[in-house]
Write a structure and sequence with these properties.
A: 484 residues, mainly beta, Trefoil (Acidic Fibroblast Growth Factor, subunit A), B: mainly beta, Jelly Rolls, 10-stranded antiparallel sheet, 14 strands, globular
Chain lengths: 484, 233
């Protein structure tokens, strides 16, 4: 996918206005359908899909085939509890066997890495089923460990009747004895339960699957104070009556997002995985993607991966803009001043150009500070994805440089930031940009020189940036990208 | 992932067709019934449920209309399909329980039923009566008695899959495309519910997958109309 990314980078940096471009889906060979929730094992990310195989990634950006699971069937899910990874899958597949008799299996392994000596799936057992006549088709399982109770829940089902909820034993992965299914939704599939701030959220995929660029798959959600429901959408419509608030639908070149899976990266960074029924930039194939998960008024909202472009980088703390520490060059006031009607014709005043000011900038490193944004050349940053430099879940690393120059934002060994006169692709010049749940962004160097400490761009003062450990409770390390 | 509901791709076409055929001809030795989804309608007027959903309907046995995919349900296709006359007076008849019509080589009966759910589970109706459940058209009629003229009312419908609905002989609301049933999915323009008798007529088409619909009458502000009754003709 090198050419894919390079093409995207060129496209972004040359032709597309800021905020209108769409970041490409994941790099590598992310071809999968019905991906499980992404799990982290032995230093790698894993997801499993319909048919038995799966994908793995070292960094969450570049994905390759290689994950392995037995059982075949459709639409598995994975959860990590203690020293076990429980994997649930539907052995039938919603009509694949010619009917709606289905079984959900759960098995466990101590590692997902097929190269590990401890890689072995154990105790494959049936935890739920449908008889082919009842209003349920037991496929598309999803697992959720309720953080408030420690109870393990499994939802399953598809358009053929109800989405159902059953309880499993988190110590064994087996069905709790005597537990009876509870109907929680209709007319959806690929259900998924998550918990946040006192609410249980039931996500599911609506629309039409498996029709390439004509698939109308979209992800929707309802919420409930109790895991057993009722799950209502933003209009108060019960998911048992078809309700569901939109989380993410088709956009740009991506058609039919489905099979939501939450990926909590900690420090307030939440993302979600899904597949697109068709990525129009990849021959219309079904691919995996990882996108920011935002929260608005208590509802999950699918965010967009940062796509690059030219921006003001604004501190959420002070509202000031990241800029080179160079002389502020005044613009001509346009005659006697700005008051009253002009004496002559009304004429535009050209913006200050880079060539007017950059010859006076120091040739070497330039310090970085925060200041009032005046859309001047020393405040405009062009942010470009860097090919073949790796990445993190959902995105590649970015180069951040003053627009029209190669003056590149970089981390220093003493934990500060500076603009270097050129870009060489070293880790301190590569930046990770994660959208946070409130829509602001965290900006982190891939690494500081001689350090593995994860640091984030932080407004230590209203006008002073530095690098510091990210504090999710503070606005100091939250940033906005605004069109200059 | 339920490939059966959304069969369309050539890549899975063979598999899908096999699945469709297997389901259409699926042997099922267990006795079938429309219970607990339906009960016979009685002569007593029936009120809407607490949310205003209309649960008493005259349902015609399904008309065969093979479709292996619901992706064909464009506006034009559905409108043309429902404009076709399948039986005499299909847009005016107010049938009685047990009335029969002939459609091609099918002899079909009307059934006066009360749904036990807010929605009318057409798949369970067809399956329970040992009728074709996939690739079919359903016709439904109900009589709504209103104690008052209600202006600016609306008919709110959800259906799986496409459907069209008429009030007192006039087209009121259409649901085109491969739809899933969501309450209040499509709502008619403002219309007037007569004082006294009103007739709601609907047609639902489906290929593979479950079929059902839910209908309620709502006031201009979206609140359900609950002071009407449903009765047998």
């Amino acid at each position: 996918m090198k050419s894919h990314l390079l093409a995207a980078a060129f496209f972004l940096s040359v032709a597309v206005p800021a905020l209108t471009a769409q970041a490409p889906a994941l790099d590598g060979e992310p071809y999968i359908h019905d991906p499980s929730t992404i799990a982290f094992s032995d230093g790698k990310f894993f997801t499993f899909g319909t048919g038995g195989g799966g994908l793995m990634s070292e960094d969450g950006w570049t994905w390759h085939p290689g994950a392995v699971r037995p059982g075949g069937g459709a639409a598995p899910d994975v959860i990590h509890i203690g020293d076990r990874y429980y994997l649930a899958y539907g052995s039938t597949g919603g009509g694949l066997a010619g009917g709606h008799a289905g079984t959900i299996h759960v098995m466990w392994t101590k590692t997902l890495d097929p190269k590990s000596p401890e890689f072995k799936f154990n105790d494959d057992s049936v935890v739920a089923s449908s008889d082919g006549v009842e209003d349920c088709d037991a496929i598309d399982p999803s697992l959720m460990l309720d953080p408030t109770t420690g109870r393990l829940w499994l939802t399953y089902g598809t358009y053929f009747g109800y989405i159902r909820l059953v309880e499993l034993d988190p110590k064994t992965g087996k069905r709790v004895a005597g537990n009876q299914p509870i109907n929680v939704a209709i007319d959806m599939e690929a259900s998924d339960l998550i918990y946040r701030d006192g609410w249980h959220y039931l996500l599911g995929t609506h629309g039409t699957c498996c029709d390439g660029p004509n698939s109308t798959y979209n992800i929707r959600v309802g919420r409930s104070r109790k895991v057993t429901g009722p799950y209502l959408d933003n209009m108060g419509i019960d998911m048992l009556k078809g309700g569901g608030k939109l989380v993410v639908a088709a956009s740009g070149r991506f058609v039919g997002p489905g099979h939501f899976g939450r990926l909590d990266l900690g420090d307030g960074v939440e993302k979600f995985s899904c597949h697109y029924e068709a990525d129009l930039d990849r021959s219309g194939r079904s691919v995996l993607d990882i996108r920011p998960l935002l929260w608005k008024d208590g509802w999950p909202v699918g965010g967009d991966n940062f796509a690059g472009g030219t921006y003001e980088i604004q501190s959420e703390r002070s509202g000031f803009a990241l800029e080179l520490a160079v002389d502020f060059v005044r613009m001509d006031r346009g005659g006697r001043g700005g008051r009253g009607a002009p004496a002559g014709p009304v004429t535009p005043i050209p913006a200050q150009e880079l060539a007017q000011v950059s010859p006076n900038w120091p040739a070497g490193n330039i310090d970085i500070r925060l200041g009032d944004f005046m859309f001047r050349p020393h405040q405009k940053w062009t942010i470009t994805p860097v090919a073949n430099a790796g990445g993190y879940p959902g995105s590649p690393y970015f180069k951040i440089a003053i627009t029209g120059t190669d003056r590149t934002l970089a981390a220093t060994a003493d934990g500060e930031v500076v603009a270097l006169p050129g870009f060489n692709g070293s880790p301190e010049q590569l930046w990770r940009i994660d959208q946070l749940t409130d829509g602001t962004y965290r900006i982190m160097p891939k690494s500081m020189p001689n350090s593995k400490e994860p640091m984030a761009l932080t407004a230590v003062g209203s006008s002073t940036p530095t690098l510091a450990r990210f504090d999710p409770k503070s606005d100091k390390a939250r940033w906005n990208f605004k069109r200059p | 992932m339920n490939t059966l509901r959304k069969i369309a791709l050539p890549a899975i076409g063979v598999l899908a067709v096999l699945a469709f055929q297997a389901l259409s001809a699926a042997p099922d030795d267990a006795p079938r019934s429309i219970a607990p989804y339906f009960t016979p309608a009685t002569s007593s007027p029936k009120k809407p449920d607490p949310d205003g959903f209309l649960q008493r309907w005259l349902l015609l046995d399904p008309i065969n209309k093979p479709n292996r995919t619901n992706t064909v349900f464009t506006d034009t296709y559905v409108r043309a399909t429902f404009s076709t006359e399948y039986f005499p007076n299909q847009f005016t008849v107010i049938p009685h329980n047990g009335d029969k019509v002939t459609v091609g080589d099918q002899e079909l009966a009307w059934h006066a039923l009360d749904s036990t759910n807010f929605n009318v589970k057409l798949f369970r109706f067809a399956y329970g009566l040992n009728k074709p459940a996939y690739g079919v058209i359903f016709w439904a009629v109900t009589v709504v008695n209103s104690p008052r003229e209600i202006q600016n009312a609306r008919i709110a419908v959800g259906s799986n899959s496409a459907s069209m609905w008429w009030l007192n002989g006039k087209e009121a609301v259409d649901l085109f495309g491969d739809r899933r049933m969501v309450m209040d999915d499509c709502v008619s323009k403002r219309l007037t519910l007569n004082k006294g008798r009103n007739v709601i007529r609907g047609a639902v088409i489906n290929g593979p997958g479950l079929s059902d619909f839910c209908v309620r009458l709502v006031e201009e502000d979206g609140q359900p109309i609950k002071d009407v009754t449903l009765s047998l003709p």
